[in-house]
Amino acid sequence: MLISALAAESGVPVPTIKYYLREGLLPPGRATGTTRAEYSEEHVRRLRLVRALAEVGGLPIARVRDVLACLDGATPLTTALGTAHDALAGSPAPEAPADGAEAAGALVADAGWRVDAGCSSLAQLGAALAALAGAGFPVDPAALRRYVRAADEVAREEVDAVPGEDTADAVEFAVLGTVLHEPVLLALRRLAQQHHSTRRFGAPARGEGGE
Amino acid sequence: MLISALAAESGVPVPTIKYYLREGLLPPGRATGTTRAEYSEEHVRRLRLVRALAEVGGLPIARVRDVLACLDGATPLTTALGTAHDALAGSPAPEAPADGAEAAGALVADAGWRVDAGCSSLAQLGAALAALAGAGFPVDPAALRRYVRAADEVAREEVDAVPGEDTADAVEFAVLGTVLHEPVLLALRRLAQQHHSTRRFGAPARGEGGE
Description:
Two copies of one chain form a homodimer.
Chain A: H1 3-10, H2 14-22, E1 30-31, E2 37-38, H3 41-56, H4 61-72, H5 77-89, H6 98-111, H7 120-134, H8 141-160, H9 168-180, H10 182-201
Antiparallel strand pairs in A: 1-2
């Protein structure tokens, strides 16, 4: 198909497709003339993937490229997940002050998790814990234990649901689940908070505090 | 204390304090001359709160103001939580296409949650589900059920941990937990994924895929 058909098929406008082509997020089409190229279903699929990572996952273009590189290469699953986590943590990765790093390390040790001591997720956890403590709102240890338990259950089931062995499909499944499901999880927690706070404290006065 | 002492005490630089004063995020000090004002411990506490909401929670200044207004007013807890959720959802709130809104509504009904049909969190859930489906990566129903269960457990325990009755302290506790704990939760899920994927698929090849 021509680029106009690719735009129609994928729902991505032609100028955006050209931008992705220039940025190397989309492989070039098969040249059929000096200014014409032919695109395939593979391009449609790739375009949707780029869109999902950028728009649902909120990743900047450079990070989308990192994640795509993992999906394209024969990257082992755990390495690919690390790249996805780095992409989500942003660049440069947050640096945790010593007290935050210590708190994060202790939490992970308590949980029995074996993780890379230099990974961006651990730095991010340490930075968040230190910022909360520094602002005078340290996270309650009981709340932390609840979060650890919930994260452990969700992640165990997510990883166990990865199909088959360490194949390209499994990598794609795991990486996309990691990146793209975060907005879903956060929205669900907020909805559940609304439900349970209404249950305990009564219905909200909408139209007063809302916008 | 003078503004210089306030900066030293809170760790927030003087120009940032002046910016917060101009934006109305911090009440003015008590004037003790034409260019001098006296600040109190209450200002230190408020500054830390603004910093936490802006830097840990990632809220833009206008949204920080909305959340502070809730904490300052005699806002009922469930209304205050709604304002915090709106602040997190961003402005303007995402609008869910019809299929996403329907999927989100069905999910919430299945969960047995009673929520405001017009709230930003429901719109956000619908937008995320529609974007995922539109990109060709619909969320697996079994994964959604796991997320709903995890969100329900976490939120129930969070709301039950809110101290006492519907007081200003309870509102602050609930709103800050909502806004400020999201980065902690996301980091914990990523760490748990790392642990469980290493358990199932082996250790990551660090130094190859990393940066």
